[in-house]
Amino acid sequence: MLAVVTGGGTGGHVIPAMAIREAFLKKGVDVLYIGSKNGIESKIVGSDVKSLFLNLKGIKGKGFLEAIKGLYLTFVAFFRLLFCFISIKPTVVVGTGGFVCFPAAFAGFVCGCRVYLQEQNAVPGASIKLLSLVARRVFLGFEDAKEFLPKTKTEFSGNPLREEFLTQNRGYQPHKKGERLKVLVLGGSQGANFINKLILETLSLLPKEDYYFYHQAGEKNREGIEQIYKEKGIEAKVIGFAKDIHKYYFEAHLIVARAGAMTVSEIIASLRPSILIPFPYAIYDHQRKNAETLQKIGATYLFLEKDITAEILAKTLKELYENPDKLSDMSKSLSMIKFNNAADFITKRILEDVNCTKTI
Mapping DSSP to helix (H, G, I), strand (E, B) and coil, where does residue 94 land? Predict the structure, then answer.
């Protein structure tokens, strides 16, 4: 059996695709990954991965000429994949979103493959919405996404995560009074300038002996931000991009980050309290919706970018430093969210459907 796994453009689509790929391989299924030459996947997917990279660009949110070019490249990719699938005869196509997902999954449907989707966000993207019409099943990272999709086809799975988040002890212990509050700041692998700037402005308002920061700042910002921590006299480990980011999650007492689907899912997996500041320009405002799933159970502080200031963030950090029990309560709230090995769950359900051992 051959499975095609496709999705890319951002790490939020690539990480689930790679996790699903690994789960299929463990079950003895041959896998071809399809991505875009112009997405982040071309940089992070290793040469050992059986893959096909297409010349594709996004359409949504682009200018007129760029959108026309993106549409043309999508048609070219679709017909190329039609001929490819006729030749290699995959049994299933699994799409995790992004601009590469649509031509690959739709070509699979036309060729008679069974199409399955995995949506990471609380608000589905355009590709997933369209493809849900031809898919057999849409696996959801957040329950809230079902209101935007054919309800008879949706099933909650959680988001497929890197294996390291599944093998760690999920226990949470807050800091004791007098100990440092360890804060993980996720400025992003590329560097989220707003988060970086906000944290640096906040440092001057904090008692330096009360905090320790792990700060993923983006490689281009690492040295400059590291120097600012030294000047402020606050202990910190500043990193550019960490492939072993899970270690810092489980070391930290608190996360400060945007609210991308995978970040929120990693917060749930690690049971870490958080302060979330959604990216305000995300399509469909999905980051705010992701964060609201945690806010409504009391597991996070949610601040819109237009409302948050260094003074407000410093006040919140001081309150949490003084109230370890509040952090414990936030972590306990996260433990109420259904959590499983999503990649294993998804691949099991797909194989059950293909083998007709159960009705999916």
Answer: strand
33 closest CA partner among 76, 75, 10, 3: 3
Secondary structure (DSSP) of 168-214: S-----PPPTTSPEEEEEE-TTTT-HHHHHHHHHHHTTS-GGGEEEE
Same domain, 302 and 243: yes
Question: Using one digit for the tens of pLDDT, what is the confidence trace for 99-137?
Answer: 899 999 999 999 999 999 999 999 998 889 999 999 999
**360 falls within a domain:** no
DSSP run (H or E) holding 275: strand 274-276
Residue at token pair 């760690």: 168
The identity of residue 83, as a single letter, is F
Note the pLDDT tens digit of each residue in 32-46. Answer: 999 999 888 988 898
HSE at residue 124, side-chain half, CA atoms within 13 A, is 25
In three-state secondary structure terms, 270 is helix
91: closest CA among 2, 177, 168? Answer: 2
Considering the domain boundaries, does residue 12 fall inside one? yes
What distances in angstroms separate CA 11 from CA 44, 146, 274, one per listed residue? 9, 23, 21
The number of distinct structural domains making up the chain is: 2
- Cα-based torsion angle of the residue sequence 87, 89, 94, 99 in order, rounded to the nearest 10 degrees: 20
* Residue 18 belongs to domain spanning: 2-158+340-355
Same structural domain for residues 306 and 221? yes
DSSP annotation of 243 = T
- List residues bridging with 116 in a β-sheet: 94, 137
Angle between helices 342-355 and 11-26 (to 10 degrees): 60
Is this structure's pTM higher than 0.70? yes
Residue 328 sits in the same domain as residue 344? no
**Do residue 215 and residue 315 come from a single domain?**
yes
Integer Cα distance of 173 and 325 in angstroms = 10
Same domain, 110 and 227: no
Residue 82 and residue 49 share a domain: yes
CATH assignment of the domain containing 232: 3.40.50.2000
